[in-house]
Amino acid sequence: MKDVRAVRQHTALQRRGGAARVARLLHERLPGLGLPSELTFETAEEPEALATPAREAGRDLSGHTLLHLHATLDWTALLAALPADRPLVLTLHDAGLLTGGCAYPLDCPGAVEGCLEPCPRLFPQARERQAAQRAELRRLNPALAAPSSWLAGLARAALPGMSVSVIPNGVAWPQRPPSKAQARKALGIAPQARVALFAAHGGAEAAYKSGPRWAEYWQGLKQRVPGALGFAVGGREARRDGDFVTWPYLDRERLDLVLAAADLLLYPTLADNHPLIVLEAMSQATACAAFAVGGLPEQIEDGVNGLLVPPGQDQALLAAAAALLASPSRSRDLGERAFARGAARFTAERMAGDYLRFYRS
């Protein structure tokens, strides 16, 4: 849409979750590049915020306004309500649009070969929903983008004949690495403490992020590094269990402070696309230890700016994380490299520029 004069970003949640974060980052930065932006969402999370139902995501668009879809609570209803004669951009933030319900297929072949009935994960009418979504995609023929080459490849296999461009995620990036000493002082953490952090939207309930096993991972880490402190972010409540502290959802400034204070982000995700929390840790000069799944290898180079181990190897992940946690100099070195690597590749400004070119192509 070479004559695009404005864009509407639409997502499911107002602020929480990766899709909402990317939509908001684009909404905030595109006007600075000369493209006015509007942001709509289906679930309001602030008083007096106005929600837009899925079926109304494309309503009242001017002839030169492009619709960019990020997420929805009902893909079938949203897509079915759109006309086929308007350009449409759609970013795949997970595999939900390719399946009958799963955000990530893991070891299920249904994303490409077609959902099984009955669904092994008990999603109702999975095959019917998957077929309806794919029919709408063929009708609308959107310009598809994915933040990782991994998900782009899965989408190309699932949607033969449709092209998918790779546009990596980006986040706000400070001009220089933050001071861990100042971050710890602000949080009341001793300068010499060894700090490990778990973080995900949903906290201990985030199944794909191994949230239900965070306490188990922490115990394994604590056995290897007895003096360590552990923090978990993203749950529903604040509580403390010895040296393990859980915080609920934190605002951006507070989360950046916690990330800056940590020596390590331990991220035992089972499946992921191009997670913002990893980029946010990098932006605060904090290294990440994770399984090499999905798009994580596109963010982290093992031993260079973080640590990766093969999926499912829990003991290897704990050993790698413990070794890094026990070595302040190596932790600092990987964190500084993570900051520099991300500053060159994963800024929100770079992402906004990439999408602006994508809209006009």
Give a quick summary of the entry.
The protein is an alpha/beta fold.
Helix and strand topology:
Elements: E1 6-13, H1 18-29, E2 37-43, E3 65-69, H2 75-80, E4 88-91, H3 110-113, H4 126-140, E5 143-146, H5 149-158, E6 164-166, H6 180-187, E7 195-199, H7 214-224, E8 229-235, E9 239-241, E10 244-248, H8 252-261, E11 264-267, H9 276-283, E12 287-291, E13 307-309, H10 314-325, H11 328-345, H12 348-360
Parallel strand pairs: 1-2, 1-3, 3-4, 4-5, 5-6, 7-8, 7-11, 8-10, 11-12, 12-13
Antiparallel strand pairs: 9-10
Q: Could you give a short account of the major beta sheet?
A: 7 strands, mixed
Q: Which runs of at least 5 residues are low in confidence (pLDDT < 50)?
A: none
Helicity level, as a percent range?
25-40%
Distance between the termini: 7 Å
Elements, N to C (H/E): EHEEHEHHEHEHEHEEEHEHEEHHH
- Decide which structural class fits the backbone: alpha/beta
Widest sheet: strand order? 9-10-8-7-11-12-13
